[in-house]
Amino acid sequence: MLKYNFKYELKFLLRSRWIQLLYIILLIVFGFSVFNGKQKVDKIKNTIVAAEKQVKENDIMMLKLIDSIEQGYKVSVPRWTVPTNPMAIGNYHPRVAAMKPLQLSFISTGQADLYTSYIKPTVSADDYALNFTEMTSPIQLLFGSFDLAFVIVYLIPLLIIAFSFNVFSSEKERGSLRLIASQPIQINIWLLQKLGLRFFWLSIIFISTITIILLIVSSEIFLQPRIYITLLALTLAYMFFWFVLAFIINIWVGSSANNAVALIGLWIIFVLLVPSVLNQLGNTIYPMPSRTLMINEMRAKKLEVTEKQDEILDNFLRDHPEYATNDPSQTTGFYHRYIASQKLIKEEMKPLVNTFENQLKNQQNLTRSLKWISPALIMQESLNKLAGNSTEDYENYRIQVINFAETWREYLNTFLFNNLDFSTNDYINLPKFEMIRDKFSVTSAILTLLLISISLLLPGLVFLNKDFYFDE
Asked: Tell me, what DSSP letter sits at residue 426?
């Protein structure tokens, strides 16, 4: 029977133009989405390269100025930008702290629409002033990006619904179901074979079309076949879930119209409603404190410490003897008092900032713990991780940038508090930023999708009998 179904399904799909139509549709949407994602990634790469190039050019000029000063020449630059001053280096010659795209970054925009790809921390800016967001189009934020993740998560299920909603009901409506039931095979097994074959052919179409598009637009992905295979396995597991849903609906509902409405309703629930509900649930259970309150408290604290900077500096040098020297000629100025007061502000604002971060982590943990409710949410999160644009990736980037900013300040503070000039020999020791990515795996996501699908599939195979299908 399986051999007959295989031949019949292939002939039916070819004659009804389903295979040809799916090839054309997937080539178009995959091609446009991958090309669109590739353009975004190239733009980010070019932006980072341009920033790094600007830093190198500024460094060349800075080293020339320092060399001229060391040889006793006068330089015609503003006093506060003279590069032998460590604070001038810290403010006017910062390093680029970039989050460089991964090999699969083009498949999912993720959080890249909201966050910047690089930052230049300075010694004057506190950690709260580091701007990790960038201006984005409100229209784009409303509708999202047409990337490969959007096609897989949102559009592929719709194609599966159109491809499978009437596999069983059409036979019943044509009156051929009783003839099929007379054959030595259970109806649910016959239906499973039909949908399994359609899953097989759609998988072949998906693998071939995405491979063609990647060969044309981003062939370097095949240099690491593990990444390519992971993407295919994750998508096929997601497709399998929707075919299982089609199997259940074909069995339980009835007419083709009712099947279509039921499957579209499930698509709305799993793809649109559940993620929105989980997001609102997180905001309700773990509400974020007022950011305006934090900004107002920060301003009040800065005003308070400005009035007693000399006392703060004395206490700071007492608590940090590595910055204090026995040199009676040691002088203190604006930046000495400023650095000391900034440290005090940072320490006193830490509890409020921690409240923000803890609430955000609680929201993310809640969503992560309940994501199994929606396979679409599992799929989106997994694709974001593969692309390196997930919420966790940007949180990791934010933490590493803040740590680097502290390292940058501490290195130059040593020169400041010891009244040392910055020299050309010190240039090679300037801290450099290199983002370290956390290791991740989507194996658990694939297994979760398969487990959900199998748990839905078993009732249709075990508990339903043949007589059920002929009830009027």
From this structure: G
Tokens of residue 13, six digits: 């799909």
Could you count the other beta carbons within 10 Å of the beta carbon of residue 272? Answer: 13
- DSSP three-state, residue 422: coil
Q: For residue 234, what are the β-bridge partners?
A: none
pLDDT (tens digit per residue) in 1-38: 556 666 777 777 778 788 888 899 999 999 999 999 99
The H or E element that residue 98 is part of is: strand 97-98
**Which residue shows structure tokens 């694939």?**
446
Name the amino acid, one letter, at 388: G
pLDDT digits (tens, 9 = 90+) for 51-78: 999 999 999 999 999 999 988 888 888 8
- The better pLDDT of the pair 327, 124 is held by 124
More confident residue, 316 or 336: 336
What's the pTM? 0.83
Question: Any residues with CB less than 8 A from the CB of 299 and at least 6 apart, and which?
Answer: none
What values do phi and psi take at 119, rounded to 5?
-140, 150
Return the pLDDT at 312. 55
- The token pair at 77 is 């630059």
DSSP secondary structure, 296-334, as one string = HHHHHHHHHHHTTHHHHHHHHHHH-GGG--S-TT----H
Taking CA atoms, 167 is separated from 52, 304, 455, in Å, by 57, 73, 21
**Average model confidence (pLDDT) for the chain?**
81
Quick one: tokens of 347?
């320490």
What is the token pair recorded at 355?
Answer: 């409240």
Residue 227, CA distances (Å) to 36, 286, 429 in order: 20, 36, 36
